[in-house]
């Protein structure tokens, strides 16, 4: 078991055979902007990394995680207990969201979901890490439907995804009346291809997409940029 130290006294236990806290979770936690005291759902919360980052930044949030794997849900609860944070982790299947939580019960939703469709090259391996990347247990349409079900009118949905899925993502969001409102691309270096997309959608929002400056993680010499250090609280 690996222990990751975040900030404000928050630590994260992580099994060695599962994904460690990655750049995608870190940049998502920094990108999300939620009102004080908001009710937030973390879809596919895993061991609670994103939820705990949100609470480390703003302990007034009321965060509920939904996780399919019982061991991961229990680990999320243990991580919250270790850090003295109030966080509810529900064991449940996002494909059956109507049976888990009431419609319109959340002000905000956040997710770092699987990126790749079933059968793609990235998910062909049978390892737990490869399976965690696959949409086998929750496709992109099912994820977006779950977010739309949970959000009140005007609520926000923030997620991180791969740039090659951006067209699919925007189509699915609009199909569920979630209007993309804010987008940011993440690059390793200024001249690198985009490797992550951060997107915020608003339930019932009017068209109008705000492009934020690209997030660059490293300078030409390979050193972390000031913004990257800020995200990691270094």
Outline: globular
Report how far the terminal alpha carbons are from each other.
Answer: 23 Å
CATH superfamily: Vaccinia Virus protein VP39
Q: What is the CATH domain class?
A: Alpha Beta
Biggest sheet character: 9 strands, mixed
Rounded mean pLDDT score: 91
Estimated radius of gyration: 17 Å
Beta strand %: 25-35%
Share in helix = 25-40%
Outline the structure in words.
This protein is α/β, with parallel strands linked by helices and 234 residues long. Helices cover 27% and strands 28% of the residues. The protein has one domain: Vaccinia Virus protein VP39 (Rossmann fold), CATH 3.40.50.150. It is built from 7 helices and 11 strands. The strands form 2 sheets. Strands 3, 4, 5, 6, 7, 8, 9, 10 and 11 form a 9-stranded mixed beta sheet that branches. Helix 1 (23-31) packs parallel to helix 2 and helix 5 runs parallel beside helix 6 (166-175). The protein is globular and about 50 Å long.
Task: Give the secondary structure arrangement, pairings included.
Blueprint: E1 2-5, E2 11-14, H1 23-31, E3 39-43, H2 49-57, E4 62-67, H3 70-83, E5 87-91, E6 106-111, H4 128-132, H5 140-150, E7 151-161, H6 166-175, E8 178-187, E9 194-203, E10 210-211, E11 215-216, H7 226-231
Parallel strand pairs: 3-4, 3-6, 4-5, 6-7, 8-10, 8-11
Antiparallel strand pairs: 1-2, 7-9, 8-9
Helix pairs in contact: 1-2, 5-6
């Amino acid at each position: 078991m690996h222990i990751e130290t975040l900030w404000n006294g928050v630590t994260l236990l992580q099994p060695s055979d599962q994904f460690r806290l990655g750049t995608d979770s870190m940049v998502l936690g920094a990108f999300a902007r939620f009102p004080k005291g908001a009710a937030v759902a973390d879809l596919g919360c895993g061991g609670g990394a994103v939820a705990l980052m949100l609470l480390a930044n703003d302990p007034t949030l009321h965060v509920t995680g939904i996780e399919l794997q019982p061991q991961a849900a229990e680990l999320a609860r243990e991580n919250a207990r270790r850090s003295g944070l109030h966080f509810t982790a529900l064991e449940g299947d996002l494909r059956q969201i109507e049976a888990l939580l009431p419609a319109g019960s959340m002000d905000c939703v956040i997710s770092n979901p699987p990126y790749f469709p079933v059968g793609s090259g990235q998910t062909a391996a049978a390892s737990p890490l490869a399976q965690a990347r696959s949409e086998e247990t929750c496709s992109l349409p099912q994820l977006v439907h779950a977010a739309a079900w949970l959000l009140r009118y005007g609520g926000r949905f923030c997620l991180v995804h791969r740039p090659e899925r951006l067209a699919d993502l925007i189509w699915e969001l609009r199909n569920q009346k979630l209007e993309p409102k804010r987008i940011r691309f993440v690059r390793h270096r200024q001249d690198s291809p985009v490797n992550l997309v951060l997107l915020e959608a608003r339930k019932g929002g009017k068209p109008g997409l705000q492009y934020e400056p690209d997030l660059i993680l490293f300078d030409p010499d390979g050193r972390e940029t000031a913004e990257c250090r800020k995200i990691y609280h270094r």
